[in-house]
Amino acid sequence: MIGRRFYEPTAGYFTAGDTSIDVDFNVTTSDGNCDVDALSKTFTIGCNDPTAALAGTFDITDNTQCEYLGCMDATACNTTVGATIDDGSCTYPGCNDPLADNFDSAAGCNDGSCVYTGCTDSTMDADGQAQGADNYLPTYNIMCGANADNECCTYTGTPEMNVVVGGNSLIRQFINTGTVYDEGMVTSWYYGTQYISGNTLYTSLNASSGINTPSQAGTSELIWGPYVSNGVLDVELNTNWSGDIANTFLSNTLTTTTQNTFQFTAGCRDGNNTHVNWDNTLDLHVTHSCVTAISGCTDTTAVNYDATATVDCSNTPIAPYGSGVDYAYCCCYGCAVPSWQNPFLDNIVVDTSATPNVVSSVDLHFNPVNTGVTYRVFWKRDDTTYGSTWQQHDITNATAVQTGDYTFAPGVTTATPNGGFDKNTQYKFYLLANCDGCVAWSDPSTILTHFFDF
């Protein structure tokens, strides 16, 4: 037994770097009965680590003799801890992004030196909802353009003016949703063709909704009212917009000009159904514009033409409020004076049962006038026995009105208290005519007399 080494009998008997060791064996039993001649053996020593370069299968392992391949440069991206032999695999920091302007295919790791050219304008929209430049990316670190001035930046989103009705006023709105425009100057403002004002600057147009309504002026009816034409108000707004951006190519300012036009209906919006021109769907109300419905003859050629009428005889609004033209209902175009036929009176019927006897009826004959609809016969005694008041009776029978032949029974009146015309008495007669649509009666016919001598 050598040094009582049970597990590694050679340990401690060679030094690092030894590649072999010779061992002599002499074996003697403890009782001395057996004695083995000396035996000599050589053992190999070396690196048995399979991960090492040139590793072998040595009898005795001495991994201090191992050699390891790898990158031994501490400044490299891939330095190998424990490497004893530099195998030329070292890679070094640089820009390893293929999208970068300075991409280095040999770079083993990114050292932050990558350069990206593009739109670097990160200006927010005026309403703070998104980036102003369409093609901005946070990775860009060099301005694009020949002069590194962000020439390549693009912008979309056109601002506009809007006009809405509030009560009976017009409210202007600056709308810049999705744009960088935070200032607007109304260079000209028209109602119809009338210039109202201009060169009014509005700043801080940065409402989160993108809809800005700064203080208003000149939007009440007092201002716009005179420019309503044929029930319509035309509005035009011309505006210069500007916004601050990070773009030296555009002098750090984005500008544009807009022209926005609007049309509003105006009239009797706040009236009621007594007005012929009431329309509650109109945009604006014009004071004193409501026209009350007045029925009458609207034909200027009629004798009873009513210049104040706003609806015709059938209550249809006339121009400019409607198409009413039915003059036949109430317009009067004059009524000719009726005339008597010859004879004007015959077919005398005497009531012999009456005391005294009287003429109970007669036939009257007259010449109808054009458009006549009613005739009024007047009569009285040709003396003052029963007074001097004329009696009257309307002839409305359609046949009589057309033919002029009418059977007339006077009945009991002041002039005929006995129920008819008295015997041996003279009576006077005349006629008036009333024509279609006329309120006034015609002038009286000739007065004729008849003596009843039955």
Task: Explain this structure.
With 454 residues, the chain is mainly β. Among the domains are: 1-67, no CATH class; 339-452, Immunoglobulins (Immunoglobulin-like, Sandwich), CATH 2.60.40.10. The protein contains two helices and 26 strands.
Please give the structural blueprint.
Elements: E1 20-28, E2 35-46, E3 60-61, E4 69-70, E5 85-86, E6 92-94, E7 107-110, E8 117-118, E9 142-143, E10 160-166, E11 169-175, E12 183-191, E13 194-197, E14 200-202, E15 211-212, H1 221-224, E16 232-244, E17 253-267, E18 284-285, E19 339-351, E20 358-367, E21 372-381, E22 391-395, H2 398-403, E23 405-408, E24 421-422, E25 425-435, E26 448-452
Parallel strand pairs: 2-3, 4-5, 6-7, 8-9, 17-18
Antiparallel strand pairs: 1-2, 10-11, 11-15, 12-13, 12-14, 12-16, 16-17, 19-20, 20-23, 20-24, 21-22, 21-25, 25-26
List keywords for this structure.
35% strand; disordered N terminus; 6-stranded mixed beta sheet; Immunoglobulin-like; 454 residues; 4-stranded antiparallel beta sheet
